Input
Amino acid sequence: MVGGGEGAFIGGVHRMAARLDGHWDLVAGNFQSDPDKSIAFGKSMGLAPDRAYADFRSMAAAEAKRADRIDAVAIVTPNSTHHAIAREFLTAGIPVICDKPLTITRRHADDLADLVATTGLPFILTHNYSGYAMPRQARAMIEAGELGNLRIVQAEYAQDWLATELSGNKQADWRGDPARAGPGGALGDIATHAFQLAEFVTGLKTETIAADLEAFVPGRKIDDNVNIMLRFNGGAKGMLWASQVATGSVNGLKLRVFGDKGGLEWAQETPETLLFTPLGGQQRILRRGGAGVSASATHATRVPGGHPEGYLEGFAQIYTDAAELIRAHGENRAPRAFGRLAPGLSDGVRGVAFIEAAIASSNANGAWTKIV
Ligand SMILES: NC(=O)c1ccc[n+]([C@@H]2O[C@H](COP(=O)([O-])OP(=O)(O)OC[C@H]3O[C@@H](n4cnc5c(N)ncnc54)[C@H](O)[C@@H]3O)[C@@H](O)[C@H]2O)c1
Output
């Protein structure tokens, strides 16, 4: 692991999720940019002293030489550092599991894409919401044509934790600094999740967008509220709203998809159920672990329905799919089961293209802008 030191947020989630299905152990890491604190934190995690590293470059070099080297590195540092860290490990021949957004510039995203293409190494991007069972069920139903031709895709991700300036908050500090977060605020932090989920579930690609970005909190340098209209290939249209100033909202990620034969609705805060309404019929509540769910949703299920699964299990699914991709790569075979559903480099490049298109559109007063 690189990042995820004392007081960090997502590194701890990755550690729990990675271990959940038994495919991963934490054996090495550079957890903070301060060398002494990184080494101390690694030791506190029970790592062998020679694998608690002072910096990520020495970690990549030392791990590449070991017979028992790491199978992958998890990158859980602020956005601006992803490119250099991922580049270092890919160059050392080590697969990467990186958190989103992939990078803070398109040039850096393309550079990683080139490196992955030339090395052939697995690269997984932890858009964790596509690991939940019921979005996978929704994807399977859309693939099977149960919604008919898709017309409308509505995605939203509403939070309120940045509704005021949070000085001294570790997570808020770098998220408000374009040098570390990149040019997008809520856009990079949470709109990218809604964007990836919408494309993952529907199988559509967003072609053009019209965006209106706002920084409501005085003095904030990057957006904290995002309104975007979307036009998809095949003619579907939609809207994406992401906000970190939506008072009363916590992790309100929600997706609604409407076709000419039916409609679907899924919300992250009630992840066990998917609402499906066939045109002219009664609304049905589909439950994770219930009868008749897709093989892909069953694959993303651990315990029987009624024993709730959620955030950690969705994250764990990405790690399980990553393990399969990395094993398949090592054994020179195609991935089994649903390993191919893991989000990867192309999701990362699209996410960065989405961020850049949204900013360009908003700066041009909402002009329709292509995602390229
Ligand atoms: N998938 C998700 O749902 C999700 C949720 C939260 C955050 N994230 C992403 O995870 C990343 C981290 O976010 P966070 O909220 O955990 O941030 P954080 O500030 O809580 O943690 C970042 C950690 O990285 C360490 N770090 C910083 N620079 C480093 C370097 N050069 N070398 C080694 N360690 C370094 C810091 O010391 C800290 O321990 C971001 O890219 C963020 O967008 C994803």
The mean pLDDT is 97.
